[in-house]
Design goal:
The protein is α/β, with parallel strands linked by helices and 400 residues long. It folds into two domains: 208 residues, no CATH class; 75 residues, no CATH class. Helix content is 47%, strand content 12%. A hairpin with a 2-residue loop joins strand 5 and strand 6. The radius of gyration is 24 Å and the shape is globular. The N and C termini lie far apart (59 Å).
Length: 400
Amino acid sequence: MSLLQDKVILVENHHEALYFWKKKKFSNLPLMHIDAHSDLNPSFLKSKKVDIGNFIYIALHKNIISDFYWVIPGNKKDFSNYLPIIKKTFNKISPYDKNIVKKIYLSNNLLKTSVLGHRFIICTLDNLPVIKESVLLDIDTDFFIIKTLKSSINIAEIGKRTPWITVDNFYTTIKKKILNPKLISLAYSVNGGWTPMIYKTYADKLAVKFGLNNLKIKKNIQAGECFFQFRTAFERNDISQAKKFYSQAVKLNPSYNSQYNNYGYLHLLSGDLISAYQEFSTMVKINGKDRMSLFGMAIISLFKSEFKIAKEMLNKITRIDGTSQDLEIYIYLAFTEYLLNNLKNAEKYLNLCIKHHAYSEFSKAFKKKIENRSSFDNLSKMKKLELPYWLNKIIFHRYD
């Protein structure tokens, strides 16, 4: 398989592949979608927004792709164990296309049906047939890390996932199966915690295998090696070495300066506040200007009613560059000051939000509560207002 560099694209969020397919005006091409997720959610029909969970459905709907092969993690001997999970995927789609559950054919660990009038085949990599025709090859890095569909959610096995297949073994197999790829898209999928950042560079290494070889990709791979050393030092609490390698990684590839540079956010999502705080606080020792870690510590402090600590963390964020890059922080500061009974300060932050149209409806309602000296006990109206995700969680945790 000899490939030109313009046949390989790297994207962070998987749905960005769809933009390239559209740009190149592809039509009715088979798709080999190698991923721990089908990305076949019909949510686009209601939201009209493209996201990582629905872009394949859109590509089918617009006839960009014809036959759809979903290659899932694991081996063919385990395929039967995945059928209940695959059925859940079908159930999401069936209200929009009854044929997906009416025309199922299962043979030799290969499942065939149809979706939106297109052939839909599900199999494992070792059971993928040889495809000679021109196809789109679409690979998500989380395929290498998520061993089974049973653990495909982002908060499963936090910090414990390891690759079940190497880049070399994958490439050796895929080049024998896919003989004529028209375009290869590789998604890092770090955002959201699907691929642990320590394995982000798998996509870069695979891109080199496929023929993409330039200075940027070389720097990306060097950055990945530095990040691996950073995480190793992080886990043994060697702050000095962690600082050194993290700085090198970010210098080589700024995308490593991300909220997913540690597992704190995923632990927070899972409700494990102790593990989350440990991750965040260690990251702050390494990089005192890590916004997400400071923010995470503030959120945990609010859940624990440690309001002074929350205020301290939020204020640190606003001082990082002399101002807050995100007006949302002022909403949290307003709520924290309210809990500390510093009502004038709370109003000051709310006025900033109203002025800059940041959650202005919630800010106005919140300000009115302060002026009327009323509490959040009556939440019926507040539930209808848009407010930041974690503030919503904290308010309803305290008052509902």
